[in-house]
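Lecture 7 notes: from sequence to structure.
We start with the chain below.
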Amino acid sequence: MLTIKQNLKEVISGGNPDRFVKQYEFMEMIMEAPMDLPLAPAPGTRVKNKWGITFDWPIDQIGSFPMHDDEHKVLKDVTRWREVVKAPSVKYSDEEWAAAIEHANNVDRNEKYVTAFCAPGIFEMTHHLMSMEDALMALYEEPEYMKELIDYVVEYELAYAQEYLKHIKPDALFHHDDWGSQISSFLSPEMFEEFILPAYKKVYGYWKSNGVELIVHHCDSYAANLVPFMIEMGIDIWQGAMTTNNIPELIKKYEGKITFMGNIDSGRVDTPDWTREKIYEDARKACEEAGKLYFIPCLSQGLNISSFPGVYEATDDVIDQLSKEMF
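Predicted structure tokens for the same chain:
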């Protein structure tokens, strides 16, 4: 029987895996690493991060999102971004890094990838600061200022990466950035190529040039029209790939160039009334359609968790069952 890491390598290289990769099993994420995560700690709370972005998590919702009313919006005029937007320091004490270093040192790297976690993404940062509407409009109305702002976010990411790599030698990077709705990308491919591709070529190129073997990018949306750019920027695995992307078609088209991780939509199975039977139905369809190579069955959720208790674990169990049935 192959190890978790060996089996993953067989899948992404078009080799001979002996089972399905089970969601996030190959990534040991070092979540103790100090960072300015923009997440409210619990439902019903509101927090402001070090960029000045205020996140609100309504008690009846499954996640938080930035507040963009006049009182809370950080950047109201992109032409004045240099006056307003101030990146937090990436310098943390040895004590703050200690738990992350201990975790990484205790990982069997023959079995799993020690994985750095980074969120939000570069595009997300622009609309977190400005609002989605303002950010999209600014790309048309003030493209040079938006390029400056994106460059500023990139410099912050590179500075953080430098600190991370100095303290921990990760084997993989798991990076968030949502680029679309369920049915369309937010940007046209031409605009994405102009604004977003150069940024990620710098960021992912830096991580890879410093020993990171695997880039896993989370984007739980439609982004089939952006896959050529994903490949160009160095993404090895697209996590969160929803069924609206037609994953089997993408595997045929880009075979050997990128692996697709998803095809089990969280919005369909991760619900208050979830059942194992429904998870099995969707997961089996996903695996039958996508096959055994360049595909990892996974919820579209952007971490190894679920919104409702038990769903992630039940999905793991279903994938184990499907491996016995289909291999």
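Points to note: The domain at 4-326 is CATH 3.20.20.210 (TIM Barrel). The radius of gyration is 20 Å.
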